[in-house]
Amino acid sequence: MVTDYTTRLNAGSFNRLGYWFAHLYVVGMCGVLAGGFYYQFVKWEYPCPLCVLQRMFMMLVAMGPAYIIARGRKGRVDTRDYVTGYGIAIVSAVAGAMVSARQILLHIVPPDPGYGGTVFGLHLYTWALITFVLAIVAAGVMLVFCRETEPLDSDYTPISAAVMWLFLAIIAANAVAVFLLEGFNWVLPDDPDRYEIFY
Question: Which option is the CATH number for 15-198: 3.90.1150, 1.10.10, 2.60.40, 1.20.1550?
Fold first, then answer.
């Protein structure tokens, strides 16, 4: 057992790659969520309830690798931490993909133009489905190569702290954005056209 651990620790670069990939995963999901803010606050496209749900699942997807990063503060991330983190990501991405597919199916019959703007001809909820599928694949690959990429000697650095603060800021910004849209109402309108908090 000790020999096995030493051999894996000597692999070094792959173990560090596994830990830093978790950072990249979180930053990538934060980037997608920031893109949603661009459409909301710059292009004035109000997210519908399904859009908000997809954002929530994206945050849950990012929470998996964020958990791995956070466990790195204690030093070595064990196999259970690693598998738990990417397991959270996969389950959340599957749920998010179902919500995205639901929204795609709502607007699939012509002449429905779809909801909101497009990026390269695809609506944001279609891109969300693509994002969730890629998130599942990435987490799955990391689990398949768990022995090679498990962070045995994780190093929680200022970069790790910055990634965690970025993620927390994205969560807080989403909470504020939903509050502005919904105001003190119990539910968000199906087709929002204003920030209810101001009315």
Answer: 1.20.1550
